[in-house]
Design goal:
The complex is a heterodimer of chains A (376) and B (100). In chain A, 13% of the residues lie in helices and 35% in strands. Chain A is mainly beta and 376 residues long. Chain B has 100 residues and is an all-alpha fold. Chain B has one domain. Helices cover 59% and strands 0% of the residues of chain B. Chain B has four helices and no strands. Chain B has helices spanning 2-28, 51-55, 61-73, 80-93. In chain B, helix 3 packs across helix 4. The longest helix of chain B is centred in the N-terminal third of the chain and has 27 residues, at 2-28. Classes of the chains: A mainly beta (376), B mainly alpha (100). At the A-B interface, helix 1 and strand 1 of A face helix 1 and helix 3 of B.
């Protein structure tokens, strides 16, 4: 017992010594991640940074305000040093380097990434995990190769029904679970599922998974594993903490059973006007973004009276199969206090709800976004 | 001379230690945590992740106890008597009355 206690003390002391050594630098939140100082720091280690809603003004979210969600941090790796294994249910296991991928046909698409826990902080009681508000979402142009083309090089067997991604991020101790996520084979082979090498026209930044990450459009962000180092073709869904425990929610038809999250929900956010805004009376534009995971957006309704009456808004501007869409609605604002709301619907028959049943891990938050404004 | 130096030296060492701890705290987080009994035990959490990961949560007794058990399984250096102290600390400051 005494020796174990001593061990504990030594471990604690070592941690504090380590912190003391790095203390001066880390004290400056702005220096935590150079170039990302506009983001809200939800956690410095692992790095979790949230975008302010007011910074989501452009269709392509610039890198410097794009949210960061790390389950664990990874050490930066030089592109020339990078390689990735493909193994498991394959006839031709491979180790691929960047130039192997660059020989495949490249394509670019706009994909909206949203963390499965975006909006978690609005659950009551408080749900477990990073307390995101609305800003764990962003839309970028991703350039890379089709995962299907990469997998083909390894000749998957018919027994391969799931594809797991493992990144260079490591848990802090061997007892802690590695961050590994799998997707079903239908999604892995879908032509939009890719290994991305570029984001918004530049080599993929380290914080966003560079040199190479998965992009699984329409699925919760955690499927798009960063810093890929290993792809495993499996007969069954990957059996690990981040598939069977985290990133799960109770089934709608039977809440005794849980499932591993796949598609994002249909969802919209209001960017303008902002919460608490004071507006002059008269015509104004209510606007924001809407997205929908595996579904395609079919409508956006806007209310300016707290949800009593709704009228259709319009989608506008450019979009892609798995990107968000800008929406807007004209509003002739009369003096007084108003609650502005937006409600998106999609081709899967889904519509944003007015409430969400509590789930312990705080996922699936797509409750109608409401913004209070004063019109003078 | 020794007589006058010793308390001063002791004071300096104590000050350095307190300062060191505060620094450690500041470096692990952006917002300080309340320094009521048990707060130093939270410094053991930063072996693996920032204090923020812990203190942005609000749980009930079961929620915090289960979380600490999971951390211990991962190798967190928290013997049973310290777990009790931590639970009291966490429930004092980071409790959701409606939480599990």
């Amino acid at each position: 017992m005494t020796t174990t206690r001593r061990g504990f003390l030594i471990a604690g002391g070592a941690a504090i010594a380590l912190l003391r050594a790095t203390g001066a630098r880390a004290q400056q939140p702005a220096a935590l991640v150079p170039g990302k100082d506009r983001l809200i720091v939800r956690s410095p280690r692992p790095i979790n940074l949230e975008t302010r809603l007011g910074d989501l003004t452009a269709y392509h979210t610039p890198d410097d305000v794009f949210f960061v969600r790390n389950n664990y941090d990874a050490a930066p790796i030089a592109p020339a040093q990078w390689s990735m294994k493909i193994e498991g249910e394959v006839d031709n296991p491979r180790v691929l380097r960047l130039d192997d991928l660059q020989k495949l046909s490249m394509f670019t698409q706009d994909v909206t990434l949203e963390c499965a826990g975006n909006g978690r902080s609005f659950h009551k009681p408080r749900a477990s995990g990073i307390q995101w508000e609305n800003g764990a979402v962003g839309n970028a142009a991703w350039k890379g190769v089709r995962l299907a083309d990469v997998l083909r090089l390894a000749r998957p067997r018919p027994t391969g029904r799931h594809v797991a991604f493992d990144g260079l991020d490591r848990p802090p101790t061997p007892q802690a679970p590695d961050f590994i996520r799998s997707v079903p084979i239908w999604k892995a082979l879908e032509p939009h599922t890719m290994i991305a090498l570029e984001m918004n026209g530049k080599p993929l930044p380290h914080l966003h998974g560079g040199p190479a990450r998965a992009i699984v459009p329409g699925f919760v962000g955690s499927a798009s594993v960063k810093w890929l180092e290993r792809i495993i073709v499996l007969a069954d869904e990957f059996d690990g903490f981040y598939m069977k425990s985290n990133y799960t929610a109770p089934r709608a038809d039977n809440d005794k059973e849980i499932y591993s999250l796949q598609s994002l929900e249909v969802k919209s956010v209001i960017v303008g006007p902002t919460e608490g805004a004071k507006l002059p009376a008269g015509r104004t534009t209510v606007w924001g973004w809407a997205w929908s995971g595996e579904g395609e957006l079919t409508g956006i309704d806007v209310s300016t009276d707290g949800g009593q009456s709704w009228s259709p808004g319009t989608f506008t501007g450019r979009w892609d199969r798995y990107s968000w869409r800008k929406w807007e609605a004209e509003w002739d604002a009369r003096p007084g206090a108003h609650t502005v709301m937006a409600r998106a619907s999609d081709s899967l028959g889904r519509i944003q709800p007015t409430s969400r049943t509590f789930n312990r891990l705080g996922y699936r938050w797509n409750v109608i976004h409401a913004v209070k404004v004063d019109v003078a | 001379m020794w007589r006058s130096l010793r308390p001063a030296a002791l004071l300096a060492v104590t000050a350095w230690m307190v300062l060191g701890l505060r620094l450690a705290l500041a470096s692990a987080q952006n917002t300080p945590i309340p320094q009521t009994p048990g707060w130093e035990l939270v410094m053991r959490c930063v072996i693996c992740h920032s204090v923020e990961v812990a203190v942005q949560q609000r749980f009930g007794p079961r929620g915090w106890s289960d979380t600490l058990d999971r951390m211990i399984k991962y190798g967190a250096p928290i013997p049973p008597e310290d777990k009790e102290t931590l639970l009291v600390y966490l429930l004092r400051h980071y409790r959701d009355p409606a939480g599990r």
